[in-house]
C-alpha cells in the first residue's frame, strides 16, 4: 500500500510517500480502506519528536474509511461499513489496521472527511469542558488556541452547553474572526494583548470559570492567571513546544483547579466510546460543525504538515489517499 512515512524525527520534510507492506488484520480488529485522514496536532508533534515504534514509521491518530476485512473475534462490525477510527499511529496510509473497539460507525450520508476529525478532536474538547472542567450553563469559558482543531470543537461544545461567554485566543485577528460564527463571544489576539488582563476586562473582573489549554508552556500560567474564583484549567496539550513551568502557589488563593487531560487513557472505556459516538451522530444531524480548512492528497503529506505548522489553518487539515 501507499503511505506517508518517515525514518527519523524532524520537520515536515522528513515525510516521504512510499510503498510499504499491507497491514495484517488482528483477530480483535479490522482493516479499513482509508478515505480521509484528519491530521491531529499530536501527529505533527509525534513527527517532530515522538518515538518511532515502527520503521519506517507511519504517524497518525485519526482516519475514516470503509471496512474491508473483519477479525475472527469481531461480531459487531461488518465489511462495507464506514467507520471513523483512532489508533496510536498508522493513519497516514491507504490501509489501516485498528482495534474494533476504536471504530465508530459513521451515519449514512455523513461526510467521511468530517467524521475522520471527530473522535480525538471533539472527544478531547468534550472531556476538557465537562468531565474534567465540570463546566455548567451560565459559566464563562476561555479556549486557548481557539482556531486549533480542539479549540474549534471546544467553542461549539461550550456554546451548546449554555456558556454565558466564550473567549478564545489566537495569533491573529483574522483567525479570531473565523471563530465568531462558531459561538466565540470575544477574541484575544495574544500577540498584541496580555491574555489574563484581557479576560478580566472582558468579564467585568470575574475571570474564566473553565479554561481549555492545549498550548501549555508559558501559555499555561496565563490560563491559571485568567481563572475566576474556583475556576478550573484543563491542561491538554503542548502545542507551544515549551517546557511546562507553572507557579502552583498561584492556585491556592482562589481555590483554583488544574487537571491534566489525556483522552487516550480512557478511549477504550464505555464512557468515552459512547461519548464519541454521540458526537459523531450529533455532527451528522448538523448540530456540530467540523471545520475543514484544507484538503491535500496523501502524497503531499509533507506539504500538509508544513501548512499546519505555518499557523494558517483554522480547524482541521485533511489528507485523502
Ligand atoms: N491530551 C489529549 O488527549 C490530547 C488530545 C488532542 C490533542 N492534544 C494536544 O493538544 C494540542 C493541540 O492539538 P490540536 O489538534 O488542536 O492542534 P492544531 O489543530 O494543530 O492547532 C494547534 C494550535 O496551537 C497554536 N499554537 C500556539 N503555539 C504554537 C506553536 N509554538 N506552534 C504551533 N502552534 C502553536 C496555533 O494557533 P495560534 O497560531 O492561533 O496560536 C495552532 O493552530 C497538541 O499539543 C495535541 O497533542 C492532546
Automatic annotation (TrEMBL):
Pfam hit, one: ADH_zinc_N
Annotated GO MF terms: NADPH binding; oxidoreductase activity, acting on NAD(P)H
Family annotation (InterPro entries): ADH-like_C, ADH-like_N, ER, GroES-like_sf, NAD(P)-bd_dom_sf
Domain (Enoyl reductase (ER)) ranges: 10-319
Keywords linked to the UniProt accession: NADP, Oxidoreductase
Source domain of life: Bacteria
SUPFAM superfamilies in alphabetical order: GroES-like, NAD(P)-binding Rossmann-fold domains
Full protein name: NADP-dependent oxidoreductase
Source species of the chain: Phenylobacterium parvum
Amino acid at each position: 500500500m501507499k503511505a506517508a512515512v518517515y525514518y527519523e524525527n524532524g520537520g515536515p520534510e522528513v515525510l516521504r510517500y512510499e510503498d510499504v507492506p499491507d497491514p495484517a488484520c488482528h483477530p480483535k480488529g479490522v482493516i479499513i480502506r482509508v478515505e480521509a485522514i484528519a491530521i491531529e496536532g499530536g501527529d505533527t508533534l509525534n513527527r517532530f519528536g515522538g518515538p518511532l515504534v515502527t520503521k519506517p514509521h507511519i504517524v497518525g491518530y485519526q482516519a475514516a474509511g470503509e471496512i474491508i476485512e473483519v477479525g475472527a473475534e469481531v461480531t459487531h462490525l461488518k465489511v462495507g461499513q464506514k467507520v471513523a477510527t483512532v489508533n496510536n499511529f498508522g493513519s497516514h496510509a491507504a490501509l489501516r489496521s485498528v482495534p474494533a473497539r476504536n471504530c465508530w460507525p459513521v451515519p449514512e450520508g455523513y461526510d467521511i472527511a468530517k467524521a475522520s476529525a471527530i473522535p480525538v478532536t471533539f472527544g478531547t474538547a468534550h472531556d476538557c469542558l465537562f468531565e474534567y472542567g465540570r463546566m455548567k450553563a451560565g459559566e464563562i469559558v476561555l479556549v486557548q488556541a481557539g482556531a486549533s482543531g480542539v479549540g474549534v470543537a471546544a467553542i461549539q461544545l461550550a456554546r451548546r452547553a449554555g456558556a454565558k461567554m466564550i473567549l478564545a485566543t489566537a495569533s491573529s485577528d483574522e483567525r479570531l474572526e473565523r471563530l465568531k460564527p462558531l459561538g466565540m463571544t470575544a477574541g484575544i489576539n495574544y500577540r498584541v494583548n496580555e491574555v489574563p488582563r484581557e479576560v478580566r476586562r472582558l468579564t467585568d473582573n470575574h475571570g474564566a470559570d473553565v479554561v481549555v489549554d492545549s498550548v501549555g508552556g508559558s501559555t499555561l500560567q496565563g490560563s491559571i492567571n485568567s481563572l475566576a474564583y474556583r475556576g478550573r484549567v484543563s491542561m491538554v496539550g503542548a502545542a507551544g513546544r515549551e517546557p511546562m513551568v507553572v507557579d502552583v502557589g498561584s492556585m491556592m488563593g482562589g481555590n483554583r483547579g488544574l487537571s491534566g487531560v489525556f483522552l487516550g487513557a480512557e478511549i477504550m472505556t464505555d464512557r468515552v466510546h459512547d461519548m464519541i459516538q454521540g458526537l459523531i451522530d450529533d455532527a451528522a444531524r448538523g448540530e456540530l460543525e467540523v471545520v475543514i480548512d484544507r484538503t491535500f492528497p496523501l502524497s503531499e503529506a509533507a506539504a500538509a504538515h508544513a501548512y499546519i505548522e505555518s499557523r494558517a489553518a483554522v480547524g482541521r487539515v485533511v489528507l485523502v489517499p
